[in-house]
């Protein structure tokens, strides 16, 4: 996907000023707190608002250019849009809701194409039901299917999981991962959940008060401790690209190899050699000056302190380099002083296997470097 934005738009009490160019294919996440400009940005891509000035182009085609006076109306942009609420037609069955998307695209009827989307999203058992009989997760799957059947050049997902509970979120995340991996349709995901972003996204744009605070691969952005006030401190942590190195079936564990060492994580149903991504939270990592012996933690990784963020209060974020990978640990200022920690110091990062939740493990390789 090539998405190029350079837009400025003013509302009463709020101004949006965003410019970004995606350097390669993959899922782009627009991340930030509510009211930071994420939805306004995707609405500009969809043509639901006309920015005061700037330009918008997708895959080299200009959709809006205020200087050249180019404005492609929304119906001609071939943009699939999935909102927070499914917005299905209540009087139509799931099958007919899906066909609405196909007819809207003006394409010849293609049973194989419809069947593919139904299978991709697991909708086969729902086709004769009406929206009121569906769960929230099922309704969102139908909404995604309807958007896919419009043959979009880009799929916009505006906080599609916000209204769902934990199990329904996991359900939709599973299907979105399939959508990412099995189709070539570019996806722009709007979210304020670091869980969703780190599982799905290749590229991450951090929004703050109408401006772009940072942009890069999800691996690079999550390893920046200077962004914690905007990315959220409690759930802060890095995302690593790793490969399944082996399984210990007797103990229900899996070994992951990454450029910096190995990790022992809860057992995965993935073949040896499969590429995974794993999120390690800063609050789950301890530091030791010497290699610990006879401890229950399975993961001890040699690393070097690169940078430390000391804010008012009790806590310190420590950025670590392990091989070509980066980790983040959150410790107390007391521990920092007691151990004499400073940039350049050699340490050992300690991580308990039980802190790596299954939702922090997902299929997916490393994004292209900027």
Task: Explain the layout of strands and helices.
Blueprint: E1 3-11, E2 14-21, E3 27-31, H1 38-46, E4 53-58, E5 61-65, E6 70-71, E7 79-82, H2 94-104, H3 111-120, H4 136-148, E8 154-158, H5 166-182, E9 187-191, H6 194-200, E10 203-208, E11 211-217, H7 218-221, H8 228-231, E12 237-248, E13 253-258, E14 261-266, E15 275-281, E16 285-288, E17 299-310, E18 315-322, E19 325-332, H9 333-339, E20 346-351, E21 361-363
Parallel strand pairs: 3-9, 3-10, 7-8, 8-9
Antiparallel strand pairs: 1-2, 1-4, 4-5, 5-6, 10-11, 12-13, 12-15, 13-14, 15-21, 16-20, 17-18, 17-20, 18-19
Helix pairs in contact: 2-4, 4-5
What does this structure look like?
The chain has 370 residues and is an alpha+beta fold. The protein folds into 2 domains: 3-222, 3-Layer(aba) Sandwich (Rossmann fold); 237-363, OB fold (Dihydrolipoamide Acetyltransferase, E2P) (Beta Barrel), CATH 2.40.50.100. Helix content is 22%, strand content 36%. The chain has 9 helices and 21 strands. It has helices at 38-46, 94-104, 111-120, 136-148, 166-182, 194-200, 218-221, 228-231, 333-339, and strands at residues 3-11, 14-21, 27-31, 53-58, 61-65, 70-71, 79-82, 154-158, 187-191, 203-208, 211-217, 237-248, 253-258, 261-266, 275-281, 285-288, 299-310, 315-322, 325-332, 346-351, 361-363. A 6-stranded mixed β-sheet has the order 7-8-9-3-10-11, sandwiched between helices. The protein has a 5-stranded antiparallel β-sheet with strand order 2-1-4-5-6, with helices on one face. Strands 14-13-12-15-21 form a 5-stranded antiparallel β-sheet. Helix 5 links the parallel strand 8 (154-158) and strand 9. Helix 2 packs parallel to helix 4 (136-148) and helix 4 (136-148) runs parallel beside helix 5 (166-182). The longest helix is centred in the middle third of the chain and has 17 residues, at 166-182.
């Amino acid at each position: 996907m090539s998405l190029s934005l350079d837009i400025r738009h003013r509302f009463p009490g709020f101004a949006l000023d965003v410019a970004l160019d995606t350097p390669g294919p993959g899922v782009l996440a627009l991340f930030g707190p509510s009211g930071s400009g994420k939805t306004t940005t995707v609405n500009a891509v969809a043509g639901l608002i006309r920015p005061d000035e700037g330009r918008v182009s997708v895959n080299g085609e200009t959709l809006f250019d205020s200087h050249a006076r180019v404005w492609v109306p929304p119906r001609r942009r071939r943009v699939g849009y999935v909102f927070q609420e499914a917005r299905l037609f209540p009087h139509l069955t799931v099958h007919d809701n899906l066909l609405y998307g196909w007819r809207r695209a003006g394409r010849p009827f293609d049973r194989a194409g419809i069947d593919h989307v139904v299978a991709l999203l697991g909708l086969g058992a729902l086709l004769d039901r009406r929206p009121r009989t569906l769960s929230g997760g099922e309704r969102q799957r139908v909404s995604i299917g309807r958007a896919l059947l419009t043959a979009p050049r880009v799929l916009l997902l505006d906080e599609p999981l916000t209204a769902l509970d934990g199990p329904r979120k996991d359900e939709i995340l599973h299907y979105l991962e399939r959508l990412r991996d099995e189709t070539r349709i570019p996806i722009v995901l709007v979210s304020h959940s670091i869980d969703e972003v780190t599982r799905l996204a290749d590229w991450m744009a951090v929004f703050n008060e109408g401006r772009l605070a940072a942009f890069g691969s999800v691996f690079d952005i999550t390893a920046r401790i200077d962004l914690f006030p905007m990315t959220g401190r409690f759930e802060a942590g890095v995302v690593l690209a790793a490969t399944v190195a082996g399984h210990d079936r007797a103990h229900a564990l899996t070994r992951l190899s990454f450029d910096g060492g190995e990790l022992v994580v809860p057992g995965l149903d993935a073949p040896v050699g499969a590429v995974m991504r794993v999120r390690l939270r800063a609050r789950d990592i301890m530091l030791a000056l010497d290699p610990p012996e006879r401890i229950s933690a399975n993961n001890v990784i040699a690393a070097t302190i690169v940078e430390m963020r000391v804010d008012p209060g009790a806590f310190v974020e420590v950025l670590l380099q392990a091989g070509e990978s980066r980790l983040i640990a959150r410790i107390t200022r007391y521990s920092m002083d007691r151990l004499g920690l400073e940039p350049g110091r050699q340490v050992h990062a300690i991580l308990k296997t039980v802190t790596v939740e299954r939702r922090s493990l997902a299929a997916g390789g490393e994004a292209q470097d900027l």
